[in-house]
Design a protein that fits this description.
about 280 residues; alpha/beta; 5-stranded parallel sheet; 3-stranded antiparallel sheet; 10 helices; globular; disordered C terminus
Length: about 280
């Protein structure tokens, strides 16, 4: 995939990314960062993960999802993500990372068991990071993984991801882009994993249309997103960690259902996940 052409014009939206509903005229969660700020200012906030330094959110009148109206251009985003460390690096211990991913793996295993089939699964993961989830799935799915496409563009973590693939002897391959993964895999997909991914992508139309076209008849998309209506979000207010520059939207449960329906799918199950967080992230 060719790098995006530089465009100084911010990406913009006037309707909700989840359901197409109208957005509030005024911000409902006011951040301290403007998309018109200098690239240096945006870069500093992006990499510093400073609480309260994020783009303001407008609420959808139909599903309640929070949307950023304007977001940096794709060229700057590629630069910013390329400079980021591994997900939660330095914020959580290895044990905490493993515990979080193990919980996700158990959720995934339960969802797969509902299908009541022993056919090897063709799996694609968006944002594989260091391979934490792959390690846990090798235990949770126990021989059910037929193929595993690990999509991870961040070159800083690819070495760790490949080490995880080798250590688990998983039938997995790393790909830098979704396009590369789909070209290599060829077949339909039984399971797409997107853990804390959909919050990060300003434009979802092309992605969902592509994934929907490649899912098998009983195929599943397993998503984990941040819920701005959660108890923790209400208690912490502006200090809630998911309020950050990396999240151009924050989905409500209703928003996720609307998103699925827009692409001819349905939510078959939903629930709350519990994550371990370091107090330093909050305070």
């Amino acid at each position: 995939m060719q790098p995006p052409t530089r465009s100084p014009v911010p990406q913009a939206r006037s309707i909700c990314v989840a359901c197409g509903g109208a957005l509030s005229a005024e911000p409902q969660v006011l951040g301290g960062l403007l998309v018109q700020a200098s690239p240096e200012r945006v870069r500093s906030s992006w990499l510093g993960l400073t609480n309260g330094d994020f783009f303001s959110y407008h609420r959808c009148s139909r599903c309640g999802t929070l949307n950023v109206r304007e977001y940096p251009d794709e060229y700057l985003l590629a630069e910013l993500y390329g400079a980021m460390p591994a997900n939660m690096a330095g914020a959580l211990s290895t044990g905490e990372q493993q515990a979080n991913q193990r919980a996700y793996a158990h959720w995934i295993a339960r969802a797969v068991r509902r299908g009541a089939s022993d056919v090897p699964l063709r799996i694609l993961e968006l944002g594989s990071d260091c391979g934490w989830l792959l390690r846990e799935l090798m235990q949770a799915l126990r021989g059910r993984i037929g193929s595993f496409a690990a999509v991870e563009p961040n070159q800083d973590v690819v070495g760790q991801l490949k080490a995880a693939i080798a250590a688990t002897n998983a039938p997995a391959h790393h790909f830098a882009t979704l396009e590369e993964a789909l070209q290599h895999e060829g077949d339909e997909l039984d399971l797409v994993l997107a853990i804390h991914v959909m919050d990060h992508l300003f434009e979802l139309n092309e992605l969902f249309a592509t994934l929907r076209s490649r899912l098998s008849r009983q195929g599943l998309i397993f998503m984990v997103v941040h819920n701005p209506g959660s108890l923790l979000a209400r208690v912490l207010g502006q200090r809630w960690p998911p309020y950050c520059p990396q999240h151009p939207q924050l989905f409500t449960p209703k928003g996720v259902s609307c998103l699925a329906r827009r692409y001819g799918m349905a939510v078959v199950n939903e629930g709350r996940t519990w994550n371990r967080l370091a107090t330093g992230i909050i305070f």
